[in-house]
Write a structure and sequence with these properties.
By secondary structure, this protein is α+β, with helices and mostly antiparallel strands. It folds into two domains: 98 residues, Endonuclease I-creI; 78 residues, Homing endonucleases (Endonuclease I-creI, Roll), CATH 3.10.28. The strands form two sheets. Strands 1-2-4-3 form a four-stranded antiparallel beta sheet. It has a four-stranded antiparallel beta sheet with strand order 5-6-8-7. The longest helix has 15 residues. Keywords: Chloroplast, Endonuclease, Hydrolase, Nuclease, Plastid. One of its GO terms (molecular function) is endonuclease activity.
Length: 209
Amino acid sequence: MILTNIQREIIIGCTLGDLHIEQSPNGQKARLVFEYSIKQTDYILHLYKTFKDWVPGEVKTRERKNGSKLIGFKTKYDGVFRFYRQQFYDINGKKIISKILNKVLTARSIAYWYMDDGSLKSKQSKGVILNTHNFSKKEIEVLCFILNDKFQLQCKPRKQKHLINNETRIYYQIYISGYSYDTLRKLIFDYLLSEMYYKFPKPRVKKKD
């Protein structure tokens, strides 16, 4: 089988988000592992429908030790997915920014990235956040450059502090300025599932004189 252009674009966007690409034991193939909170059931069912020809099993749920529930599915191992594993993971299995990202990142890819990791900065702001905690500040600077250069989105790294086991850790997000609201909306809104509209700022209604 051959991946469709839509499937390729979704893989790119979701890999920047929460998608995990798992290498086969012999290293010759890879598979896609989609798993999200049970609250995102509609989203996972949409992804399952999109990739169902590659999926040998069904959508499954599991419960973590803390009681939270996850839902997801895995594709079969295939050589076609190995390309994306090589592009977006280093030899130690850590996610990295692909050197070809500037060429392959599309508006649809950004939409799926946003559905995975996007959030409102606040209810009052038209700015939005991409929660890119898995990447270093340098990698996020590269992502910001691509978003700015290719899609004219004003963005910058945004430092976040998290207290984990009494230890303060520094992470970085991508902040996309409210000045780019119209550009971002035109770019990705038509690709967003209606169930994900809550993640995107609503247009401001101009007050009548």
